[in-house]
Amino acid sequence: MKSFLFHLGLLVLMALVLAIWMALPWAGTLALVALLALWMAATRSGRQAGAVTAVGLGTLRGRLGSSSVIVIGIAGVVGVLVALLAMGEGFRATLQSGGRDDTAIVLRGGSVAETQSVLLHDDIVAIAQAPGVARDASGKPLVSGELVVDASVHEKAGGDANAQLRGVDDTAWTLRPDLKLIAGRRFKPGLHELVVGQGAHRQFAGLDVGDVVRLGREDWRVVGVFASGDAYDSELWADRQTVAAIYRRGDSAESVLVKLATPDAYTGFKTALAGDPRLKVEVATTREFFARQSESLARVIRAVGIVVGTIMGLGAVFGALNCMFAAVAGRAREIATLRALGFRGGPVVASVMLETMALALLGGLIGAAFVWLLFDGYRASTLQGFTDVMFRFAVTPALMWTGLKWALAIGFIGGLFPAVRAARLSVTAALREL
Q1: Is residue 287, in this structure, part of any structural domain at all?
Q2: Residues in domain ABC3 transporter permease C-terminal (predicted)?
Q3: CB < 8 Å & 24+ apart, contacts of 301-307
């Protein structure tokens, strides 16, 4: 019973330490490292722990195989975890970067995405006349009715895919000041002309300037390529009225993009639309809208990363436990000799933990560095609805720090029980072991 309660208490302590550790910011971690260094330098127990740790690390060359199991296992966990999280972060950043506080998007009431919305001609006119809408030098409202349809295209790598064809008004360019033409020219209203995002141009075949591509049973000529650095890079753009005529959408739009006179005008604009009896619409700033669009898939990717990382982490923990128990057993007589010379259990526990954590840190650094070198900025695509969205992996310092925290957490679990066993080792029994 006493042994059961001891191990139960150890499990509770481990869970508490892990919860605190995973919530600890980097500044708190630096403070923790400083306290550990101070303890090892200023106290007798700390100096003993440092001495035993140095001896343990000095024997790693003779235990290279078992030590490599810990390092490689943890490097794999960190690599997979950070890569998946970087995918989610890159996708989220791609969608959100298209949002601004001085532009608003208007959808039909109850719609959560453009493809679920329909706005008629009278709706577009009423939105354009609402207070808070910016106007150009001639007094024309800066609004763009936009229509999104799926277009079947061919991948350069082979196979079919869906791209997003967006029909826009002339003012769409003004509403997106970060969007720049990098080749060719803009399309002309009324003609079957396309400009394509650089991501779509890179991934899909037949989208070079001057090419003719068949979309919606009509031939379209590619006249330009644009770069925006966000989800629009994955799209094909054309005149809204032309797209609506070919895809039989009448004079409708799915969304209306609005340039606000000032960011502070958003509240008045939204209130005016909510109070207009002719309209039943949803209004959000484009920053809010794209944040909502990206969050659901990013959340799924993060959840998958945590689940996969946990499963792989369990394997790494068992590997670390096995290796460290074997290391403690192999050093039993050495540890017993130290205990007989007056070394207490605390320094022995600390030394085994420090050794395991050092191996875990090395594995974490290798895994994080590998992912950063291989995947940071790597271009990929995923489905958003039924269309391909191109994005880049974003291996940020925050994600690498998350990976290192996981590595050290695995090292803590893998070293705790072998460390306690080493501290509780009977001196007389250990000295008799071969």
Answers
A1: no
A2: 307-426
A3: 301/84, 301/85, 301/87, 301/88, 301/91, 302/84, 302/85, 302/88, 304/84, 305/80, 305/81, 305/84, 305/85, 305/88, 306/81
Do 153 and 261 have their domain in common?
A: yes
Of 237, 252, 279, which closes a domain? 279
Look at residue 284 and tell me if it is in a domain: no
Predicted confidence (pLDDT) per residue in 277-333, tens digit: 888 999 999 888 877 776 776 777 778 778 887 888 788 777 777 777 776 666 666
Are 333 and 198 within one domain? no
How many Cα atoms occupy the beta-carbon half-sphere of 409 within 13 Å?
A: 23
How far apart are alpha carbons 81 and 101 in whole angstroms?
33
Which one of 279, 302, 323 terminates a domain? 279
Place of tokens 């650089």: 198
**Looking at this protein, which amino acid is placed at residue 153?**
V
Hey, CA dihedral for 425, 428, 429, 431, is it positive or negative?
Answer: positive
In angstroms, the CA 419 to CA 352 distance is 5
Query: Is pTM, for the whole model, over 0.85?
Result: no
On whether the CB atoms of residues 152 and 215 are closer than 8 A, the answer is: yes
Residue 286 forms part of a structural domain: no
Instruction: Give strand pairing partners of 181.
Output: 226
> pLDDT (tens digit, 9 = 90+) per residue, 363-397?
999 999 999 998 887 766 555 554 456 677 788 88
